[in-house]
DNA sequence: CCTTAAGCGAGACGGTACGTCAAGTCTTGCG
DNA sequence: CGCAAGACTTGACGTACCGTCTCGCTTAAGG
């Protein structure tokens, strides 16, 4: 999660409790203050930790917030609800629920914005957050193929392109709905989204 | 664009040139420095204007950047390319091109992130940027209905919901592709996106 | 009092009332705010006058305050109380009373401090304020000589030196008492001061 | 000299060198710029210190200048020259020499002016500067009494009043001579001042 | 068990930007 | 041309965080 140190074997080991306290304090501060007013001094105080301890483990605000937010997405999973549409609805609702929490709202978009000028940060976001979700898309696709809801992949490259597209559309739609349009991604909306998507996929399967 | 003052007729009038210079300087600074390293002092210097002049017209960094970025979207338009799919492709490519510019990338997501904690800012974003694009969706819908590509609106409320959904999906997908996935929203990708969407709409029209 | 303009005969003449209003407003602001927090904008507002009008007549804060304070000293006079000691006591009490007013306290020392680095300002202070008081010393001396309380001036240069010394001692003592020691220059104190001074002068007269 | 903190034993200790550098830089800036153009930013730069360091130790310009000027008066002492008159002359010349230095001229009167509206500042001036000098008056008085030049104190309250008066007269005269009259408090002038004072004191002793 | 190297808290440090304020100038339109 | 109004440039203000540093103390592993 944080910078790997190459096997320091002597000296006092780092407190494991501090990490958890810091990440929790970060989320708490995100809720209360939002990204732009969050300060590392404040986080350190909340965590009952010195500023130096914090800087020893994270390079700065961006990295810290990525890790703090990433933990929120660990709870995402893909339950088997019996059909492609139901599976999608389930996972999208989970995603929307996470994104509706203020610590995710405030933090996630901000680090994405920062990542437009910081490749290392973008890589960290991808590793810690995005790829974790994309895995769900792949699993859902395989599961739907087993069920016969989607055709098998004749062309693997085409399959990857399709997965990327679906992922951008679904994740993008939820984010846009939640943050830009500022309206809730509730069950009705998710049902409409899923319906449009599944119909599109079905049409594409017929056409190909 | 900035706060309207109710017709002050006495005293020296505000320099109109300064507004343009400031917004241009803001975009320039966004390109070079990105959102988080952009400072109002620097913008003022670039614009050849005093910091106080800047604060007299905008409440802060957020408001300024919204206005600076909003001007980028003024060039969006919906050319008639003969079919719904072609129209969508055309406008999405325009949107993607704007979003690919560094001043838009850096600035837009940052103010969206800020807006999660600032209702006035969100309203400003909506007025200055979002609604301008949504108008294109409405126009495209009407045009497609005239062509017979889409059924007429039996239920206006349902039509609005549908337009909102499409807008969130398309805009969200482009944003997610560009900023999160960090891959270009090029013609091939846009064609795939459009195809999936049009098939979905067609399927929905059949089903209803 | 203010900068002399050499007979402008065309255009709208300057409002004479404005001068008085500005100086009164300056004293009022001195009372309320003190020297360092007094601003020319505020003075202009109080006087119901534009800032430009103020700058057209005074070069800056220092000059304005000198003139505003100088008017306070116009009321000083040397009443004939029948003896040197009584005359001194009378005028010193008057001086102490003026110096006790907050607009004098705040303003006078500040401009004196400024004048250590500004010869023109020092000259203005001397002309407008100091020499007006020193005249009283000279008058008192002559009057005492007429009464036979002091010997005539055999040596005019020595007489001038003596007058200067007395002036510095008396004025300096009152200022120091009032501002530095921050205790009132009341009747008892003035009587002690006068007694010491008159005894000294008498001793000097005997010794020469 | 600055605010006493009650023995903080944790954290990085304050640099002692910084204090000296800041006070020296303040005096240097007073010489070059005078009180009103002295800025704390400039002082910080001269001292090779961050502005925050300066504000951490002094509340503002006034407090800083008081301390910077106070150090100048540390060199004052009362040498035993054998007679009351000679002792007075000696110490007055020292005082005049200090007051003639531009950093004292510029700074001292300004803070006195400010102190008319700031009781804490006046107390600081009194503690750091005034009382240090007044001690010299008391010592001189005792020494003269031992020599038989002045009568013993029958009435202690009267003695204190007398000492206060002498102090205000002498210090006030030197200040007035130097700053208001703007003429040097040289040996001849100091001799005249001392003579008048000693004659007055002698007369008072005879009369009582 | 005892050295020893790192972790740790506290908080001072040099910086940079903030948003505000006052100084003094300039630009309007009105009288 | 005087004047009121108010926008303008300039530059200092005092504050807040940044990320680094210097202390003195604590803590575990390894000799």
UniProtKB/TrEMBL annotation, chains A, B, C, D:
InterPro entries reported in the protein's UniProt record: Homeodomain-like_sf, HTH-type_TetR-like_transc_reg, HTH_TetR, Tet_transcr_reg_TetR-rel_C_sf, TetR_C
Domain of life: Bacteria
Keywords: DNA-binding, Transcription, Transcription regulation
Record-given protein name: TetR/AcrR family transcriptional regulator
DNA-binding interval(s): 39-58
SUPFAM superfamilies, per database record: Homeodomain-like, Tetracyclin repressor-like, C-terminal domain
UniProt keyword DNA-binding present: yes
Domain HTH tetR-type: residue ranges: 16-76
